[in-house]
Amino acid sequence: MNFLGHSMISIEIDEKTDRKTLYGNFTGDFYKGTLEKINLTDELKEGIVLHRIIDDISDRENNFLSDLLREKFGIFKGIVSDMFVDHFLSKNFYRIFNENINDIETKILYNVNQYEKYFPEKFERTLSWISSEKILSGYANIDILERAFYGLSKRVKKGEILNSAIKELKKNYGIFEENSVKEFEYVKNESINKFLDKY
């Protein structure tokens, strides 16, 4: 899952345990290497640990979307799966979380911006795009999702295949919707348990 899915798992943990995982989880893809070499407080590093736990679980072979994506997208199936999950979380947000997505989007971005002094290289530009385009709530919109795939296709080596993701989504929309929500729930429960076992 992408920024929205990661954020919602952090929000659940942070509200239940008074932790601060949201920043590190949201920015996790921008922090590389071992935790010891990352310039963050131990409290904020917990979010990066959570991010990596979520990614490991999402990348498992029996991801609920894998069978639908493997043949067409190969090594890019994980990227497509992540984006599809965020699309359906955004689309069904109130039903899944019983919250207004615009309020939660504001809350997430406010929280992330509190740690501006720690922003890794290249993250500021990404955050500016996410904020100005209202991407977290915008993921529900197929046109915005298609633009996001197009942008990714330009940044990933041999990523042109990502431009056909929306066509695939439309062909099996109902199945993707059901499996994406199922995938999120599975990853959320597994990652929260694994994270809390660690801390």
Query: How many DSSP H or I helices?
Result: 12
Biggest sheet record: none
Query: Ends: how far apart?
Result: 23 Å
Q: Helical percent range?
A: 55-70%
Instruction: Report the uncertain regions.
Output: none
Report the order of strands and helices: HHHHHHHHHHHH
Rg of Cα set? 16 Å
**What is the SS-derived class?**
mainly alpha
Average predicted local confidence, pLDDT: 95
3D architecture notes:
Pfam families: ACP_PD. The protein has 199 residues and is mainly alpha-helical. It has one domain (3-198). It is built from twelve helices and no strands. It has helices at 3-17, 22-26, 42-58, 66-73, 77-91, 93-97, 101-113, 123-132, 135-138, 142-155, 165-171, 173-198. Helix 3 packs across helix 12, helix 4 packs across helix 5 (77-91) and helix 5 (77-91) crosses helix 12 (173-198). The chain is globular. The two termini are 23 Å apart. The mean pLDDT is 95.
Outline of this structure?
With 199 residues, the protein is mainly α. It has helices spanning 3-17, 22-26, 42-58, 66-73, 77-91, 93-97, 101-113, 123-132, 135-138, 142-155, 165-171, 173-198. 70% of the residues lie in helices and 0% in strands.
